[in-house]
Amino acid sequence: MVKRRIAKFSQLLLERSAWFVALFQALLIFCSLVVAWLLRFDFSLPDRVLLISAAPILVLTRLAAIRCFNLHHGWWRYAGINEALDIIKAVALGSAAFVLVIRYLLGVTVFPRSIYFIEALLTAALLGGVRLFSRTLVESVRENLTSSKKVIVIGAGFAAELILRELKHPGSGYTPVACVDDDRCKLGVRIHGVPVVGTVDQLPSLVPSYPVDEVLIAVPSATGPQMRRFVGICERTGVRFKTVPSLREIIAGRVSISQLREVDLEDLLGREPVQIDLESVRKQIDGRIVVVTGAAGSIGSELCRQILDYAPHKLVCVDQSETGMFYLRRELSAHKNGAQLVFCVADVRDWERMSRMFAEYKPQLVFHAAAYKHVPIMEWNAHEAVSNNVLALLDLLDVAEQAGCESFVLISSDKAVNPTSVMGATKRVCELILSARPANQMRCVSVRFGNVLGSSGSVIPVLREQLQNNQPLTVTHPDIKRFFMTTREAVALVLQAFAIGNHGDILVLDMGEPVRILDLAKSLIRLSGKSEEDVTIKITGLREGEKLQEELFYASEEVQATACEKIKRVHTISNGWPQLKQQLEELRTVMMVDGAEPLRAKLKQVVPEYDSQNGRPEPVEVSTHAPRAAAQKAGGMD
To answer: Distance between CA atoms of 487 and 301, rounded to whole angstroms?
Structure first.
């Protein structure tokens, strides 16, 4: 308590009294001169008249130099490297002025020359030392406050150094006590006074020796597997843990590295961010008129956000959801970046509405994200799937071409590969349309990717909702796997495809290895702070149209590299536009027939790989993983 009061009083005195700061620094300079004199003359004070006469001149010249470099304030608790450099500069300037006055203006040649150097070194040491002492005193007092959380930091690199610097500032709410790092060469090193005490694997055994409230993961470049390892180790410690934003978030400028947050699934599944050729994208969007269909959806809304970063002349957002457009308008209006925004509540199947809209705004670029996507629902609504996903695309392509559109980008899905569902078959038909359709001055590109984390109705939000409501987590099959990507990655791929794609291309993101949904469910349980014994996981059986594992490529497709390492270009085998056009006209005719089977048969003719029977799951025995206590209560079932 006494230490805190002394520190608080000294800081208030330093920060509020300019006269006190000046007198204190003058005293330090005078002491440096006296000590230099003592060192020069073997701890005696000869020529005291000369010493006393020179002291006022030295003090005045040094104080003037100190003011020139803004060192006359008393906010010493924020002193750092820059202030140390300014002290060196001020001392050098003051010494030069002192020599000029003594030797050349006053003509005093008997003043010992060694004093010039000794006094300068002592003055620099004292001016820097009192600042270091002041900062150390304040921080040591802060570290003793019971309100601050004691933390161990995983990582001892550049990011950890920035985090530790931030945490050392008063008011951060954290007191770092140690670091751990996989690089054994860093053991024993101190970063801003915080020691590196062991490796990451040793963290569970180190926590009892360093009682902490939280663990901070300061590795923004960590990949998904690395983050999963860190999380697993943190869970064994039994304390809470947080992480810094990922490298892609920091690069994008959305957050600063010091914004700590909870670890989420994006961290566990994350990959290296797709490297976008920003200039090529900007060159093609800057000053253009852009249309985004399905703009209120997960992909469409992120497309709108990122397109605005490239300063289009006008962005036309199209969606049939009035509520979705309301929220999108409220969000985008705050970040227009000079673009004109237009929000059209419209159905892409309404040919007349689309024709009028395209004639009015004359878009040059179209990003088509409007489509039905939920596999089981579309199995029961096959006509709607074909109407919205296929026939609407055909009409929209004609409308865009007539309006003089230059580029058309289609959002496809990995479910288009060897489809077992109506939704997947319609997406494959869309890919074939854009691949076979003649260019006619409009470049058409398809983009194929996997599941999007957190998109509306996808597995992650469903599992999270079940977890929050203390409901059993439902997984269709213990071995079901899916490719996952973040919304940002998906949109990055779309924009890069737009920049590098040639007419008829299908571009596919290299999404690494597929992830088991069961593993995702278990990760969500752990991240929620619960154990797997506390939560029920139900295996419900595959749904209509669902496959155990999705694919990214057909065996017949030729896969080529592109300028972007993470994006592949595929060329698909097509029977040609005339034959495909005839099949599509027949498909339009079949739409008038009741029942889904004739429609599925026609889709099978257009997409021979479509296997509708494979998408009809046979009845399976539903198994349940129940909490241990509940199982015992139910009669000892395990």
So the answer is: 10
Alpha-carbon distance of 326 to 295, in angstroms, equals 11
Count of other CB atoms within 10 angstroms of residue 79:
19
Name beta bridge partners: 508. 448, 568
Please indicate, yes or no, whether residues 220 and 311 belong to a single structural domain of this protein: no
Determine phi and psi for 141, rounding to 5 degrees: -65, -45
Distance between CA 271 and CA 122 in Å, rounded?
A: 53
Q: Do 250 and 379 belong together in one domain?
A: no
The angle subtended at Cα 382 by Cα 547 and Cα 550, nearest 5°, is 20
Neighbours of 605 (CB within 10 A): 12
| Residue in 415, 481, 538, 568 annotated catalytic | 415
**Is residue 269 a part of any domain in this protein?**
no
Lowest mean pLDDT among 17-26, 27-36, 256-265, 553-562: 256-265
**347 shares a domain with 242:** no
Write out pLDDT tens, residues 169-210: 766 778 889 999 999 889 888 888 899 999 999 999 999 888
DSSP E strands in 30-96: the ranges are none
| Full domain range(s) for residue 338 | 278-615
* DSSP code for 70: T
With a CB cutoff of 8 Å and minimum separation 6, the contacts of 194 are 153, 164, 176, 177, 178, 179
Residue 466 lies in a domain: yes
pTM of the model: 0.67
**Is 415 annotated in the active site?**
yes
* Alpha-carbon separation of residue 367 from 55, 144, 443 (angstroms): 76, 57, 12
For 99, what's the count of Cα atoms within 13 Å in the CB-facing half-sphere?
Answer: 13
One-letter amino acid for residue 52 of the chain? I
How many CA atoms within 13 Å lie on the side-chain side of 557? 22
Count: domains in the chain: 3
